[in-house]
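Lecture notes, part 5. Sequence design as translation. It can be helpful to think of inverse folding as translation between two languages: the language of shapes and the language of residues. The source text, in structure tokens, appears below.
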């Protein structure tokens, strides 16, 4: 394999591994573009408990493939033709294992499980990445559901309408 081609393959694989760090998050502070300007369902609730959890990283195979290609290219450049083939195969296997581990670790995130009680007495559990708000048991919260996903946020303060705005209606 020509040196220029090896560099292009290696660069592509490194770019694929770097892209893994930009995978989606479950953070309550990050809203997906397709969820913007959509009406969401809101439910009032009270926090019963909050505990730290870890959301396991994904293993889509992209890391293993990229690592395998990088390992194969690196290994194939060792020694003569026969040695290069053997080391290339070993490099591909080792690279796939390392690439898979990199993908899993870069997509893992620290999160919280929030158990709430709705006004009707039902209980719900929501797991989401740690956000800017630290929720505590007994605190009033809202559950915001959009497109099958739910996030928990501190309930906004309720204010009475002012006398000026009430007279304008």
């Amino acid at each position: 394999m020509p040196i220029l081609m090896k560099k292009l393959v290696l660069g592509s694989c490194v770019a694929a591994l770097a892209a893994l760090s930009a995978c989606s998050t479950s953070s309550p502070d990050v809203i997906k573009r397709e969820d913007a300007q959509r009406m969401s369902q809101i439910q009032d609730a009270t926090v019963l408990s909050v505990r730290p959890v870890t959301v396991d990283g994904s293993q889509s195979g992209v890391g293993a493939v990229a690592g395998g290609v990088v390992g194969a290219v690196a290994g194939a450049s060792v020694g003569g033709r026969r040695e290069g083939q053997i080391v290339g195969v070993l490099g591909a296997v080792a690279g796939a294992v390392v690439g898979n581990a990199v993908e899993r670790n870069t997509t893992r995130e620290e999160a919280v499980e929030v158990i709430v009680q709705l006004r009707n007495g039902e209980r719900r559990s929501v797991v989401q990445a740690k956000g800017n708000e630290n929720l505590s048991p007994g605190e009033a919260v809202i559950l915001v559901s959009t497109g099958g996903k739910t996030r928990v946020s501190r309930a906004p303060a309720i204010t009475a309408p002012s006398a000026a705005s009430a007279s304008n209606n």
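The translated text above is only one of many valid answers, since several sequences can fold into similar shapes. Helices lie at 3-20, 62-76, 81-106, 163-168.
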